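Sequence in, structure out. Go.
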Amino acid sequence: MTRRAQVLANTGYRRLLAGQIISNLGDVVAYMGLSFLILYRLGGTAVDIGKLTIAATVPTLVLGPVAGTLVDRWSRRWVMVFSDAGRGVIYLLMPLAPSLNWIYAGVFLSNVLSRFFYPAKSAMVPNIVGKEQIVAATGLTQAAAGMTAVLGPGIGAAVAAFLGPSTTLVLNGVSFLLSGVFIMGIRGNEKERSSEPDSLAAPRDWKGKVRDVLSELASGFRYILDERVIRFYAGVFAGFGLLVGGLNVIVIPFLKDVMGFGIPLVGLTQSAQAVGGLLGAVLITLRPVRRPRRTILGALVTFGTLIVLVMGVNRYLWAVFPAAALIGAAVASVQVLLNAELMRLVPDRLRGRVFGSFSSLTDGLGLASMGIIPLLAVRFGIAEVGMATGGLLALLGLSAAFWAKGAEEPGQGVEGVSKVGRTLVARGAGFEPSTCPVEGEA
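Output:
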């Protein structure tokens, strides 16, 4: 039985995957509907679409680490169920919004709940499938996301055109509720057992509970800083988010203004990238990845080199589509393996807050680059800035290869355990010095 078949034989994972396919498709459909609603029904502009993006991003920057810390304390399954239920209600009510401000508020609240959902999901997956199946599970999840990215825009545009933009919002609301029903049926260990006392459940006043949350939040940051291999991945995440966020913004202007593509060819290029991402996520699960760090860095170098070639040698129309597919495959490989490595390495007790912190890091830097890189493109030219960004991505992969040599060694301190690791062992936080997950081949 292949690794994918073994993962899909897991009832808990099948339920989680089914819920994610439904809700991801609903998200993509709803985004198309919101764009149509804002631009065509409520008389909005591109500026209003930008405000929509800000409303969706701000909760990640503000709440990511805090939400992850609380997720580590609560039942992850019920966090996901209540998050889905809340988001479902918000989208079912959104068609009644009398103005754009109410839509922004709805998107903001929905993404507040998402900040609890995603760390809970990432923290729970290794306990559902087992650490030996993490790459296969993450690859299948990424492939499902790629499938919805391919199918969703067309479905969303068709629904918005024939049934109205509000229908896409209702469908998204229903998709969240269905996802919650699937997740509610997951059984098994959603957390590793720990003998550490639940300080948030102890009879303390609210100030004491706030201090507990802040203390645990700080322990998550200290873990990231103390563990050499986690610092390595934090650097890769940061560089990837900083460069790719702005690059995504200038891709369509590049295709339109430099390549001279019309809407159909732009759509075909984006579809080629989505298909490449889907195939890349599937292929990465076909065989064990014995050296994940080298694979990640190789994919980064490939991604950056292809960007340089496409934006530098931009006279060859035929080369754009296969390059877009290869770029999609490289990006999917980086995303699958980065997330799988974090799931494997980070102890269960800290998984929620570490994923929340990484999410805030990448989204914050990505948002900053969305403002900086387009301004540089206006000043120096789209193709030139795109080539420079691609070169920096390739340089990130090459330089990180040298950094990874230090990250291959065990964590700091006695028997490969960092200061935070030793503290957690003393408290019975779920792992021992001999099994502290900070090692592994590059």
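Check: The chain has 15 helices and no strands. Residues 194-201, 408-442 have pLDDT under 50 and may be disordered.
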